[in-house]
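Pipeline run #58 for the internal structure catalog. This entry was flagged by the ingest filter as a single-chain record with no existing model, so it goes straight to prediction. Upstream metadata was stripped on purpose; only the residue string is passed forward. Reviewer on rotation: M.T. Logging verbosity set to normal.
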Amino acid sequence: MFLKLAENTNLQQIAEHRSNLHPIPKNCWGFLGDSVHLWLLRTACAAAITAAALALPDKALAEPAQPVFDGPMHVVDGDGLWFEGQELRLHGIDAFETSQPCHRPGLDAPYPCGIEAREKLARLLRRHGNAARCEQLTIGHYGRPIVSCTAGATELGEAMIASGWAMAYVKYLEGEKLHRYVAAEKRAKRAGAGAWAGTFTQPWDWRRRR
């Protein structure tokens, strides 16, 4: 079994990175590819190579890092950014759609809360020279990178929820980020921030009804 594993090219490459922890005789690599049937030596070499490979930390075997988008951004809508010809979607939030109306006491007609959401995100960016750093988490249904973004020390997704112009998209959240975003939404609701000052349809419901 060791011999079969060690003859795998990827395993050999992995083992070379950690041969300092599990010393591998210098002549092992040559014998593994040699046609001479020195079974005992080949088996010993294979065992040493396999042990070195298994000693490799999990993080070294992890997938390559996801892309990072860093620099000037343009606002598409309340949860979308444009960076060098590509649209990015903020992870874990759902802002009002650009054409979506909301209602507020004292106003005779609905107001464009989607426009308000877009303007809020634009203001957050302008405070930092319209620049942000976004780390890709995954790719969305429409082929857009789903990203977590900061502008300076401001985490844009959480800031949009706290402003009341975006909702926590809890079905896509988990762990510590879920708790932060839900807490930010509760604070915005209690304070009557943004759209919470009146009544509205949740963005996901509004899209579904159209």
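catalog note: The radius of gyration is 27 Å.
catalog note: The first helix runs from residue 2 to 6.
status: ready for reviewer M.T.
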